[in-house]
Amino acid sequence: MNSNTTTLVVDIWSDFVCPWCWIAKRRFDKALAAFEHKDAVQVNLRAYRIAPDYQAEPIKAALLKKFRDPMAAEGMMYSVQSHGVAEGLDYRFDTMLFGDTMDAHMLVKAVDDEALRQRLVEVLYEQSISHGKSLFDRDSLALLAAQAGVPAEMVKRAWSTPQLRQQVQDDERGASRMASGVPLFVFGNGTPISGAQPQEVFQQALEKMHARSQVNLAAFAGQACGVAGCTI
Fold first, then answer.
1. In 10 A of CB 113, how many CB atoms?
2. Cα distance between residue 168 and residue 68, in whole Å
């Protein structure tokens, strides 16, 4: 990173049982990969539970309770699957589970390496959505963590460190001040962007964030003192 570049911060709130969150993540990842200044971007993964204290059950049953109309539930699943296919994602609602993801979020919080954390998040999405793996059983989560390459000591720390639970709850409070659900993206403390927006929307948000950062750098660069005096 050179002296003319500042860190560009993106905060992302999501939940593993939110059907749209994996799609939103994939679209953002594509936008970031194509962004000229991607090396200056710091992505903060924030936790959010759409079903706190909810006993785990098949997601189809949970959706039917929510919509109270089988046709509406089927329509929602069809829409998600169609958008998922367009992004190369395999949604299998027949085997997906739904519930309180506190343990999964604490596991992610326990990983302090950014690349490893991103790999774990992708494994949790893929294995729960495409392969019906449980995110509500710690033995299952430990196996998924091992698959992602997470060391056993990090897994052990995940559920024995009260501060990680507090971090999840702090993230949730932060999101609740801006929106009522996820996925939620905030680019450089700008206006929040909700939902699985098209890739182009994320690309525009990244460009605008970079442009704002350059304006700020130029403003500060003009305020300097030298042997001939100080500029205003």
1. 13
2. 30
